[in-house]
Inverse folding.
């Protein structure tokens, strides 16, 4: 947990420890990034809680650095809870976003959801069947969990991959934002659908913007034929 407010950091750590987590903390961005780098070599962590407003290096900068060498789930935290903070954090590579003050049970649910998404080989409810080929070079293999574009493997985060697998189950069929939120994020409460929209934007940048259609007011569909 990278959080400069000692009270929040310690209270959250104690609460999570009681729920069975082991929590390590850092109080500024640079310290947290270096701790994360060291742990990845020695004793890798399972997830990162990352505050937006941090001294030495803000949370968005830290997240971008982390995404250069790791796909470990990142949940951004912000006291402001502003839409711009959320979009900026997600666009930097975060998997989810939570505004402070937050309920510990909600944080626990979010953590369990992102951790499930990293266990992709067991997530066989998302996609089945044979690899999904695309006439212009996009291939999605739901068994090996590999996506290639023109024979080149595409680097996707677990969240991006799970969204793509869900859309590829029935190319051309619209999938609602609510269904994506439930299946990928595991939410059973109302949430901001911009979380999904930002991840889809990131996915489009990697596989081609025209491959995923937006159906206004409803959701998304994967092109059943190459554009």
């Amino acid at each position: 947990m990278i959080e400069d407010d000692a009270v929040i950091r310690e209270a959250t750590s104690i609460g999570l420890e009681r729920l069975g987590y082991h929590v390590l903390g850092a109080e500024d961005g640079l310290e947290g990034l270096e701790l994360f780098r060291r742990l990845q070599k020695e004793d890798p962590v399972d997830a990162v809680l990352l505050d937006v407003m941090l001294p030495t290096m803000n949370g968005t900068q830290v997240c971008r650095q982390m995404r250069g060498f790791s796909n470990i789930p990142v949940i951004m935290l912000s006291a402001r809870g502003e839409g711009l903070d959320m979009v900026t954090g997600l666009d930097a590579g975060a998997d989810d976003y939570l505004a402070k003050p937050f309920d510990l049970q909600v944080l626990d649910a979010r953590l369990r959801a992102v951790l499930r998404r990293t266990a992709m080989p067991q997530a066989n409810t998302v996609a089945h069947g044979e690899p999904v080929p695309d006439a212009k070079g996009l291939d999605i293999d739901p068994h090996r969990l590999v996506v290639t574009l023109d024979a080149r493997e595409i680097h996707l985060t677990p969240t991006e991959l799970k969204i793509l697998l869900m859309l590829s189950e029935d190319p051309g069929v619209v999938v609602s934002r609510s269904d994506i939120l439930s299946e990928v994020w595991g939410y059973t409460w109302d949430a901001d659908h911009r979380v999904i929209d930002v991840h889809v934007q990131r996915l489009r940048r990697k596989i081609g913007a025209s491959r995923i259609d937006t159906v206004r007011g409803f959701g998304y569909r994967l092109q059943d034929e190459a554009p």
